[in-house]
């Protein structure tokens, strides 16, 4: 007798983001054909404020805890790489949530 087991493996979803700090509001401006994301962040780009605001903004859209989000490149630059720990079956859903945030604005 064989058992069917559902295995969810953790994977890294890497988001390439261009951040524009000091904007009027937090908003996703664009996701281009290469899945590069342009995001406006209202916080200043001083003392990591814009980075913290970016993490808070993304986690509120994706509805995931902040311990699953990490900036792995570009801490002091506009171009950043954000790593999201997720399961492989959840990856497309997360990307759709980001795309829907543009459409709903």
Please name the defining characteristics of this protein:
single chain, 105 residues, alpha+beta, Conserved Hypothetical Protein Mth637, Chain: A, five-stranded mixed beta sheet, 2 helices, 33% strand
Describe this structure in words.
Helix content is 26%, strand content 33%. The chain is of the alpha+beta class and 105 residues long. It has one domain (10-103): YggU-like (Conserved Hypothetical Protein Mth637, Chain: A, 2-Layer Sandwich). Strand 4 (69-73) and strand 5 (79-87) form a beta hairpin. The longest helix is centred in the middle third of the chain and has 14 residues, at 49-62.
What is the number of strand segments?
5
Intertermini distance: 52 Å
CATH architecture: 2-Layer Sandwich
| Helix-strand string | EEEHEEH
Q: Look at the structure and give the mean pLDDT.
A: 88
Structural Rg: 15 Å
When the domains are counted, the total is: 1
How much of the sequence is in beta strands?
25-35%
Low-confidence stretches: none
| Name of the top-level CATH class | Alpha Beta
Q: Outline, from the CA principal axes?
A: globular
User: Would you tell me the structural class of the helices and strands?
Assistant: alpha+beta
| CATH topology tier name | Conserved Hypothetical Protein Mth637, Chain: A
Q: Into which percent range does the helicity of residues fall?
A: 25-40%
* Count of alpha/pi helices: 2
Tell me the major beta sheet.
5 strands, mixed
Main-sheet strand order equals: 2-3-1-5-4
Q: Going by CATH, what is the homologous superfamily?
A: YggU-like
